[in-house]
Amino acid sequence: MRSASLFVFVLNSADAPSREFIASRSGSFVRALLDRFERDGEDAYPLTLVGILIKSDPTSLTPEFRQRILKLGDKSRYLGNAVDVVKSIVPVPPGTN
Questions:
Q1: CA–CA distance, 36 with 42 (Å, rounded to integer)
Q2: Residue 95 falls inside a structural domain
Q3: Separation of alpha carbons 82 and 70, rounded Å
Q4: Which of 21, 28, 65, 82 fits 51 for a cystine, CB–CB 3.0-4.6 Å?
Q5: Which domain holds residue 75?
Q6: Which residue has the higher pLDDT, 94 or 25?
Q7: Would residue 97 count as lying in a domain?
């Protein structure tokens, strides 16, 4: 939990370009957090990083990733922010960007 708190502090202290850069490189980390939650069922504070990172870099939000977060959000209070962020991002239809 300390490392998650430190990571949140670093992200919140960084300027916008740095936050975007960090978030753009964190996709596998976010997926690992979700994998662990699916496997262990432990609703823990590090899951709050999912919403923070997606908000900082919404380009990593694939349709499959979006569905996964929405599905798991019902089981986790710490994914609440991620669900709100996902719902606020309007998906771009394929081939229109």
A1: 8
A2: no
A3: 8
A4: 82
A5: 2-88
A6: 25
A7: no
pLDDT at 42: 93
And the tokens for 17? 């370009």
Which residue stretches of the chain are H helix? Answer: 2-13, 16-24, 27-40, 48-56, 63-73, 80-88
Residue 66 in contact with residue 86, Cβ under 8 Å?
Answer: yes
Q: What one-letter code names the amino acid at 27?
A: G
pTM comes to 0.80
Look at the block and give the residue holding tokens 């229109």: 96
Q: What is the number of structural domains in the chain?
A: 1
With respect to residue 96, please indicate whether it lies within any of the assigned structural domains: no
Note the pLDDT tens digit of each residue in 62-92.
Answer: 888 899 999 999 999 999 999 999 999 876 5
Side chain identity at residue 49, one-letter code: L
